[in-house]
Design a protein that fits this description.
Blueprint lengths: L7 E4 L6 H8 L14 H18 L3 E6 L5 E12 L2 E10 L8 H16 L4 E7 L3 H9 L3 E10 L2 E11 H7 L2 H12 L14
Antiparallel strand pairs: 1-2, 2-3, 3-4, 5-7, 6-7
Helix pairs in contact: 1-2
Length: 203
């Protein structure tokens, strides 16, 4: 079962979600990192690929539903990807422009990060991000990820430089250890750490 949060429900997509996906993936601003909007056939192929992943892998990109309204506001999930010559688990996310800047991408991505470690037993989780996509990089950083490498993907006839962000299990366990948070607060008492500068929700 996909993860969920206080504000969001993640669930498998179906063919009934095609119109909502088309509205999202045919928005030029949403699809800037993909070199422009997808055609109807490209969106259908994308959706079909996710449905195949649910069957083959048990996971994929899930739809993100806003609890308070029931609206489909984005996609977030885990897929197998080839990054810099290695087959890795990757967290991907894409959201409707009307729901940007409200913390939904970070919230969903963190839930997927935890799910990958707890349900899949992952040793490391990645996000591949185009080097011009600052907003997506910020989400990766809020997941506790750091840059591991830079590589080039050839997509839609274009060479696209990307960064490979990742977080390993040991780092995730440290960041979610209550004693680690206590130690940070103790350091703050000594003046070496400013609690106000820590994103506690990310830990």
């Amino acid at each position: 079962m996909p993860p969920s949060t206080d504000r969001l429900i993640l669930a498998e997509m179906t063919l009934n979600d095609l119109p909502a996906l088309q509205a999202m993936m045919q928005d030029p601003e949403v699809m800037t990192a993909y070199e422009g909007p997808y055609s109807d056939s490209e969106v259908l192929a994308w959706l079909t690929r996710q449905i195949d992943r649910y069957h083959d892998d048990g996971f994929g990109l899930w739809k993100v539903i806003l609890r308070e309204s029931g609206a489909l506001i984005g996609q977030c999930g885990i897929t197998w990807q080839d990054i810099d010559g290695h087959r890795v688990l990757e967290i991907g996310y894409l959201f409707n422009r009307a729901h940007w800047h409200q913390g939904y991408a970070t919230e969903a991505a963190r839930a997927c990060r935890t799910w990958a470690f707890t349900e899949l037993g992952a040793s490391e989780v990645f996000s591949q991000i185009r080097d011009t996509n600052i907003a997506s990089m910020n989400v990766a950083i809020r997941m506790g990820m750091t840059i591991r490498s830079r590589f080039v993907k050839h997509f839609r006839g274009i060479d696209m430089p990307h960064f490979a962000f990742a977080i390993d299990r040991a780092t995730w366990e440290m960041l979610t250890d209550p004693l680690f948070i206590v130690r940070l607060r103790e350091k703050d008492d000594s003046g070496t750490t400013n609690v106000d500068d820590i994103d506690w929700d990310a830990l």
